[in-house]
Please model this.
Amino acid sequence: MSGADFPGSVQFFLDAGGQDWNSIGTLEDAEWQISQRKDINRGYTDATLWIRIFVQNESEEAITVLLEEDFTLVRVLEARVFRAGAEGPRLAQTMQYSSAFDKHRLDRSQPFHQRMVPFYNPVLPLSVPAGRSIILVKLQSDMDMIAALQLWSPESFGRNMVHRQIIFGILYGSILLMFLYNGLLWLSLKEKTYLFYSLYCVAFAFYFLAYYGHGAQFLWGDYPWFELRAVPIIMSMHIGLLASEFFRRFLDVNRSTPIQLRVIRGIQIFSVGLLGASVFLEPSRSILIFPVYAIAAILIMAVISVVRYRQGYKPALFAILAFVILWVAGIGSSLRSLGIVPYNNITMYGVAFGNVAELLLLSLGLGYRLKQIQAEGRVAGERSQSLVHLLEELPYAIILRYSSDRSLAFANRAAREMYPDQAIRDWKSAGIQAFRSQGMDRWIAVHEAHLEIDGRKADLQIHWEISGEMESRLELEEKHTRTVEAKEKADENRRAQDEFLQSMTVEIRRPMAAVLQAADVLDALEGSNEQKNLTGILLRSSRSLVNLLNDLSDLSRIESRGLSVQKTPFDPRALLSDAIRLFEPGAKARGLALRLQLSSLPPLILQDSTRINQVISNLLNNAIKFSETGTITLIADYSEESLRIQVSDQGPGIPQELQKRLFQRFEQLQSATYRRYGGTGLGLAICKGIIEGNARNHWLRKRTG
Model:
């Protein structure tokens, strides 16, 4: 037979209008395109591809030929053989229209065992009559529209099939060897990177089984639903899940490289969605995204490999080289699917062996990575020994336990010495812990940190005995408690004294008021000198006693709850002038001069004039009492919203060592002072209480002599 290889012997028409076998014969020859190469690649399309092949059977009787479509994933392959006439240019005029000489149909949506030729590629046996004939072929596809038709004699087909079996044997055998080798490494090392590499090999094998038709031939041929969706389903799992997870582990992408980790997780999440689309959508709809998806995923993983290599991770170089191979193979496959490059043995089987080369390179990379891990392990072991030695010598108790079962992983010498007669304590949380040992209470401060060792969570604790500190602390707390109790008792006694003093003051003041009034009446009556002297003594003593009661009452209120302050506007000049006039007679009687010195006083200030007058009176009274000669000066000025009052005299002065006692109650600095001048020692204490009650300060500036 001849003619199929001659120029113009193969013509095609891409039908987007739904032609049938009758209408296709009415097409003008000008509408048919002459194929310039053996394959016709129209990429992804839902149109029907019609092909007519002109053949010449030079024998005198019909012969059988095998029409093979070398692209496995075409969905429908239908062929009819027509005798060719010589009546006209159109197909309908050149074939005997009544019926085809032979016709057969193959549909991948039917079980595999219904195929006439049990071969992984679609193959139709056709009977070709003697003379000139036309083989009209109809192709429909859910995936790539690739027509790689070949006509074989049964003998040549058998010989070619042996060659292809050798090729695929090498392909699957290589994958099987790498799967077994790395699977055994995973079983011995328990390193999950080898597990995912083995699964990656399995995914490659299943992809080849689906893509080249061997899966339908040997595994799932009786399940056409899966056969039509096998490629997108397996690609989603292969690229998006297993490959991405293997490369994540191989490139050591984890939480320390968060950006790369998020990118890989994004690919995996997208792949899960794509897997769902592959299951529930028609293959013709879901397959459209896979060429772009494959190129993008490979490119992204290649970029991550470059980034990891630039970060100093040397095994990433193997991934970069593997991705170069995979990228070239994947791009070649995608470009072939898109119809950009021709369909031939290089683009058909080169992708498969490129993937095998990639797997082999990654296997070498795993070996290099294992050696690097072992070298790092030796260094880490040496460092671990140094660290263990260091921890052993620390004075702190270092304890390491696994979180899951609380088993003890490490305890240094200090920990063993801390618990010599019992098992090392397992405190579940940080803080201060207590227990009893050998009849004594012991206190332990526990500090805790959470770690992860070889994939297991662990708790690192530092135990520090603080029994001595806790005993001191408990003693201090006990002393503090006793002090607080003593203070509360003292406050209670003071309150009782204050209540008694207030009660006694009220009870004494009532009869003293009567005595004072009687003394005033007697002093006003005429009498002898002796009677006048006695009346004066009675009057002065009564007034002194009343003043003492008033001072005690004021001091009691100051010390218990404070004097009440009644702020009203008053003229400070008038207040100070009245004080001078009040004490001037007494001063003159002792031969003293009173002088008032004022500066910068406002016309009115807001303050308790009664309490201020009480302070001035006490100060002037003391100055007159303790001065023998000279001038007593009352000085007042106003600045920063404060009234400042000073009393200056020429008294005997106060020694430096006694000045700090001056404002204490009932304080007479020397016993001779009381005998000579009298007084209760309450005046300055009351002044101090009044001034502090008004949130002001007081001070003393005196010296002896």
In short: The first strand starts at residue 10 and ends at 15. Residues 86-90, 92-98, 697-705 have pLDDT under 50 and may be disordered. Residues 385 and 391 are 10 Å apart (CA to CA).
